[in-house]
Amino acid sequence: MGNQKTVIKVGTSTLTYENGKINYRRVESLCKVLADLQNSGEEIMLVSSGAIGVGMGKTGLSKRPSETKKKQALAAVGQCELMFMYDKIFGEYNHSVAQILLTADAVETDKKRQNINNTIDELLSMNIIPIINENDSVSTDELDGNNFGDNDMLSAIVSHIINADRLVILTDIDGLYDSNPRENPNAKKIDVVTRINKSILDMAAGTGSNRGTGGMITKLQAADYATKRGIEVHVINGSNPQTIYEIFESKTPGTKFLAQH
């Protein structure tokens, strides 16, 4: 296939342990897989949450604060640490990274979208991996829970702006189930969803993790947005980043949402 644009979205629950500290083993594995895919000719972008989770670990907080200004401060501390980590680990595999911080108003006009597209295109042509996050230290939308939803929607919007071929969302369960797998041992994973309708959305009712703000419902909303714009979406378990390879081998390790053309 070659030279396809893939956006990989990684959430806080994948990047950190329950206590909020970075899961280095997983992050190193993720960076290695993405560097390798880039080497194979794929164009890879990473949408990464985790600034607040990383900020919690850095400042020794064990519980995510509820006040917005505290979250903003943690995001500011954590974003530095997050990019330092990515820069260091991708650097070990001879890859450079670039940081792009976006707020909702950065994607609201065609001109602004074009500017983002131009920047990302240029980075990809220089073989640099763009790492995108919501600018949580100035934008309170996600923190207040009414905007990108732990970056799931942001990853879908970015995928559309840059005309990506696929979006891969890493989460802490194996994909979409017909009922909550944490409560029902007989819950079945749905391999392929041809169209997102009300019955599919109803399956995703449930909660996110302690460290992120997402949950399956925000992933489905993101998948709905992207598939309607011709982008294939995969929701997979991020606990073993090697699984990402299976998507490039035309397998369905998680749930695949078909692009609507």
Could you provide a short overview of the structure?
Strand 3 (97-102), helix 5 (110-125) and strand 4 form a beta-alpha-beta unit.
Fraction in beta strands = 15-25%
Q: Name the structural class.
A: alpha/beta
Number of strands: 8
H-E order: EHHEHHEHEHEEHHEHE
Q: If you compute it from the alpha carbons, what radius of gyration comes out, rounded to the nearest whole angstrom?
A: 17 Å
Sheet of most strands = 8 strands, mixed
- Averaged pLDDT: 88
Distance between the termini: 19 Å
Low-confidence segments, given as residue ranges, are 207-213
Shape: globular
Fraction of residues in helix? 25-40%
**Spatial sequence of strands, sheet with the most strands:** 3-4-2-1-5-7-8-6
Number of helices: 9
Structural features, described:
The structure is a single chain. This protein is an alpha/beta fold and 261 residues long. The chain has helices spanning 12-15, 24-39, 51-59, 68-92, 110-125, 152-161, 198-203, 216-227, 244-248; strands spanning 5-10, 43-48, 97-102, 129-134, 166-171, 192-193, 232-237, 255-257. Strands 3-4-2-1-5-7-8-6 form an eight-stranded mixed sheet, with helices on both faces. Strand 3, helix 5 (110-125) and strand 4 (129-134) form a beta-alpha-beta unit. Helix 3 (51-59) crosses helix 4 (68-92) and helix 6 (152-161) runs parallel beside helix 8. 45% of the residues are buried. Residues 207-213 have low confidence and may be disordered.
Which keywords apply here?
9 helices, 261 residues, globular
Explain the layout of strands and helices.
Blueprint: E1 5-10, H1 12-15, H2 24-39, E2 43-48, H3 51-59, H4 68-92, E3 97-102, H5 110-125, E4 129-134, H6 152-161, E5 166-171, E6 192-193, H7 198-203, H8 216-227, E7 232-237, H9 244-248, E8 255-257
